[in-house]
Design a protein that fits this description.
By secondary structure, the protein is mainly α. The protein has one domain (10-486). The protein is built from 19 helices and no strands. The protein has helices at 18-49, 51-76, 78-87, 91-111, 119-126, 130-145, 147-161, 166-189, 198-221, 224-230, 240-272, 276-312, 316-343, 346-353, 361-395, 399-421, 428-453, 465-477, 479-499.
């Protein structure tokens, strides 16, 4: 496909160029940063509200994302279908992919309603202090009730990010962040006739922001040029074949999310049993870490999009070039944050401690300073895992990232942490964080090696090139010409499998 024939939503820069990468990545990085800011604002306000609220927010929030992770990971993979169909110039299949994701989002979101009544029993098993448990139940229950807009926002964002129209995602997320900040302040602390709602208010503010996001994405789909090319109103029917393919490739990605989030959730839960200070410090360290980590998920999404598009165009070598350029950005970003975490941790910690009413906040800050050194140690490898993991998943290689999280995450991080915490050693928190750091380092190196080996270059989640070309020829020249063209393309594909993929 020539640059002049790129479909709507693609960049105007040369494929595989640094400018193309920046055009796709920068809005997504800023968008992810706005989401990171939303979580940070949430935690900061809750820190000012009470120490127990801070202690409860991370476990309850992570458990919610754990419960939703399989669904959200699968729904996020709609991005790969959109990008590969866009690369293959099949706008009708782009719309159909979004609709299948919407149906899955609605069905899944409704199911989460049933988790809310189970919250008291779930958090009783975790065993945190009673006052923390009560706040955890409040936070978790509201998130369960608001699962539908969270799922729908995830799917609808893929329509824009998968096509490279990332400035739309950025503007919507920035507006949602502003909406969240206003509602967060009002509902947590109260204002006028609105009473202080604390933890419940923080969760409600987040759901309101997601409802706003869904509304904006839907309205922007009604733009004339979108309707003219993608005709979203025509392709709403349930497509079982496409839905099965979404499950086949997206479900391992969703399970990968589940296993990864479960590992880190279990890490926080187990560390939280040491004492309140360790739990608060761990929550604070991960929350600060999100300032570096979450923006990198934006460039990871950009890599996933570009790799998917290049696979759809049958140009994997350009995908390699874009991935390595993205890694250079991620490595620089993570190294800079790591330096600040070590040399000037107070830059991040002052905002937490300035208005806190908790008497133990000084001890928590001192302990967080130590934990941020571990964050600095593994940040570079965290960026490595994000970039190369996104690259292989963008082509359809979802099983290997799942293997890394399922095997390494639990054997290197979770299980050793459990033994350290129950050993009654005075340095058990430090040993637990060593386990966490080693896991992140191994995962990053493993995903880079998988990318280098290159089996992802021969993968795709959409129909084969021969099927796509035959369908287009059948529409214009008839079935006989389509069959002849399909045979020719199959021969070319057979040769490419022997000699390896090429740019053209």
């Amino acid at each position: 496909m020539t640059q002049s024939s790129l479909p709507t939503g693609s960049t105007r820069h040369s494929p595989g160029s640094f400018r193309e990468l920046l055009t796709v990545a920068v809005p997504l990085i800023l968008s992810s940063s706005s989401l990171s800011l939303m979580h940070v604002i949430d935690r900061v306000f809750l820190t000012w509200y009470s120490g127990d609220a801070l202690a409860a927010s991370a476990p309850a929030g992570m458990l919610n994302w754990l419960m939703m992770s399989v669904t959200l990971g699968t729904l996020t993979y709609v991005n790969t279908f959109v990008s590969q169909y866009e690369g293959a110039d099949r706008p009708a299949r782009v719309s159909a992919s979004i609709w299948q994701g919407v149906y899955l989002a609605l069905a899944s979101g409704v199911l989460f309603f049933g988790l809310a009544p189970l919250a008291p029993k779930i958090f009783a098993l975790i065993g945190h202090r009673p006052e923390v448990q009560r706040l955890e139940v409040e936070y978790f229950s509201v998130y369960c009730m608001g699962a539908v807009p969270i799922c729908l926002a995830t799917v609808l964002s893929c329509f824009y990010s998968g096509r490279g129209e990332n400035h739309v995602v950025l503007y919507v997320d920035l507006a949602a962040c502003l909406v969240h900040a206003v509602f967060d302040w009002v509902l947590i602390f109260g204002w006028g006739p609105i009473p202080p709602m604390g933890m419940t208010g923080a969760a409600v503010a987040t759901i309101v922001a997601y409802v706003f996001t869904v509304a904006m994405f839907v309205l922007l789909m009604l733009r004339p040029h979108i309707r003219a090319r993608y005709h979203p109103g025509r392709h709403w029917r349930l497509d079982l074949e496409l839905l099965k393919r979404l499950a086949r490739y997206g479900l391992p990605s969703g399970i990968h999310w589940f296993v990864d989030i479960a590992a880190f959730s279990m890490f926080i839960f187990v560390v939280g049993t040491i004492d309140k200070t360790s739990l608060m410090a761990t929550n604070m360290a991960f929350n600060i870490n999100s300032l570096a980590f979450i923006p990198m998920t934006g460039i990871g999404t950009a890599v996933l999009t570009l790799v998917g598009r290049r696979i759809g165009e049958n140009r994997p070598d350009l995908a390699v070039r874009s991935t390595w350029m993205a890694f250079s950005i991620a490595a620089t970003w993570m190294l800079c944050f790591g330096a600040v975490f070590v040399l000037a941790p107070e830059f991040f910690l002052k905002i937490y401690s300035s208005y806190s009413k908790d008497d133990s906040i000084g001890l928590v800050v001192d302990e967080t300073v130590v934990l941020l050194r571990f964050v600095a140690l593994y940040s570079f490898f965290d960026g490595m895992g994000i970039i190369f993991g996104s690259a292989v998943r963008g082509a359809g290689d979802t099983l290997f990232p799942l293997f890394i999280s399922a095997v390494v995450g639990w054997t290197v991080m979770v299980i050793p942490t459990w033994f350290f915490v129950h050993s009654d050693r005075p340095d058990r928190l430090i040993l637990s964080w060593w386990s966490c750091s080693i896991y992140v380092i191994i995962a990053g190196l493993g995903l880079m090696m998988r990318f280098q080996l290159g089996p992802w270059k021969r993968m795709r989640v959409i129909e084969s090139r021969s099927e796509i070309d035959a369908e287009k020829i059948a529409e214009s020249e008839g079935p006989a010409a389509a069959e002849e063209a399909e045979e020719c393309v199959k021969l070319v594909e057979a040769v490419q499998k022997k000699v390896g993929p090429k740019d053209d």
